Amino acid sequence: MFFPISNAHISPIYLVVVGFIIGILGGFFGVGGSFIAGPALRLMGVNWNYAVGTDLAHIVGKSIVAARQHRTLGNVDLKLGLIMAMGTIGGAEAGAQLIQALKRAGNVNTVVSFVAIVVYFGISSFMLWESRKTLQSEKRPSQAGIVKGAASKKDRSAFSPVTRNIQRLKIWPMITLPTSGIRISLWTILLVAFVGGVFSGFLGGGAGYIRMPSMVYVLGVPTHLAVGTDLFEIVISASYGTFTHAIKGNVDILIALVMHTGAVIGAQIGVVATQYFAGPKIRLAFVPLPLIGAAIVIYTLMTGHKL
Amino acid sequence: MKKEAAKNLRTFAIELAVYAVLVTCYFFLVLHLLGEWLYHLETRHRYTYAVVAILLIAGQAVALDAVTTLLFRLLRRRWR
Fold first, then answer.
1. Which tens digit of pLDDT belongs to each residue from A241-294?
2. What sign does the dihedral A98-A99-A100-A102 (CA atoms) show?
3. What ipTM is given for this predicted complex?
4. Sign of CA dihedral A32, A61, A26, A3
5. What does the DSSP assignment read for A195-207?
6. Residues with Cβ < 8 Å from A99, sequence gap 6 or more?
């Protein structure tokens, strides 16, 4: 099939299959899946700028489906999502400015690659440690480790003492989030979203691999709610990203529409699958995702080929 | 439990087959018709193209979500 906007010939079946895989990951983990979609489009000869922009457009559609499904399961905190979207958009702009500054300094690829590797390995290692520790502690009949405010989904985390201390920070204005069952400073939410946004602008994609764990460990949002709310938040921030990329001529919406037909089914499977797993198990299963991202960056560093 | 899982799997397989037919029709009808127009917009009216792109992907998301949910519901009722 010929796509005139990006001037590329790609099999629609390939696009649907890629969309399907990303849809499953998105529905289950609340991530955009740009670390797969970008390289998958590059493999078919789509220019890097189109791969980034088109991926964002596809993320909008996939996240709408997954967020709607999560909402029917009661896994979306709309208030939290809207607040986080503001922080993410601000952070994404800051991340993009950082990239521009590094471009001027002439070492953008090296810095971004090393930061990405450290961040990806850091997240994976931490989540592996935390989820294993939590799963081990769950075998013992104790109430220790239940995250404050996680009553709605009964989530546990070995990191909960730190989370509770963060929730105790009384910096005005304090926000009550009944759906997530937490009361926390607005600035903490904005800071988490801003950091996620900076990584999104700096490393590309939706940065769900940073935001979802941050929502669980820093804000104390139960894992199921973090997944659903992250998806809702991605709808807003990725729409903004799609718009800015589209006016720069980086979006082939026809490719995004075809990919999305597969993602719809994948996202529904992913969402339904979350019902059969407890929070720590979802977090444990999340561990390989940032490692895939790290592997792609290491590959590009070693071979010089940008996937 | 196993019976339920088998029923879900069968429903899903049928849903996938019906969905594949619908999507193939969609490719040839809608995308073929929209292709030229979108290409024209992308080259000459970027702001309009940006808005249309978001509306299209969001509209498709809502429409396909409704179609798959409806299909799944209909098939489940039929197999029950």
1. 899 889 988 899 999 999 999 898 888 888 888 888 888 888 888 888 888 878
2. positive
3. 0.87
4. negative
5. HHHHHHHHH-S--
6. A108, A112, A201, A202
**B contacts of A1 (beta carbons < 8 Å):** 27
Q: How many domains does chain A have?
A: 1
Residue with tokens 């979108």: B38
Rounded CA separation A13/A10 (Å): 9
Interface membership of B74 toward A (CB under 8 Å): no
Out of B34, B39, B64, closest to residue A261 by CB: B64
- Summarised one tens digit per residue, pLDDT across range B15-46 is 778 888 888 787 777 777 888 899 999 999 99
Structure tokens at A199: 């990584």
Tokens of A91: 């952070």
Beta carbons of A120 and A35 less than 8 angstroms apart = no
pLDDT tens column, A45-88: 888 788 888 988 998 998 898 899 889 989 999 999 999 999 99
Q: How far does A264 lie from chain B, in Å, by closest CA?
A: 7
Interface membership of A273 toward B (CB under 8 Å): no
The region that residue A106 occupies, defined by phi over 0 for left and psi between -120 and 50 for alpha, beta otherwise, is: left
The label of the residue with tokens 């804000």 reads A219
Question: Tokens 């939410």 identify what position?
Answer: A189
Return the SS3 of A173: coil
Binary contact (A242, B56; C-beta < 8 A): no
Residue A97 to residue A18: CA distance in whole angstroms: 31
What is the Cα–Cα distance from A215 to A208, expressed in whole angstroms? Answer: 10
Q: Computed over its alpha carbons, how large is the radius of gyration of chain A?
A: 19
- Cross-chain CB nearest to A253 (options B23, B56, B65): B56
Do the Cβ atoms of B60 and A63 come closer than 8 Å? no
Domain ranges, residue A16? 10-303
Residue A1 lies in a domain: no
Residue A3 in any domain: the answer is no
The residue type at A37: A
**Cis ω for the linkage preceding A173 (within 30 of 0):** yes
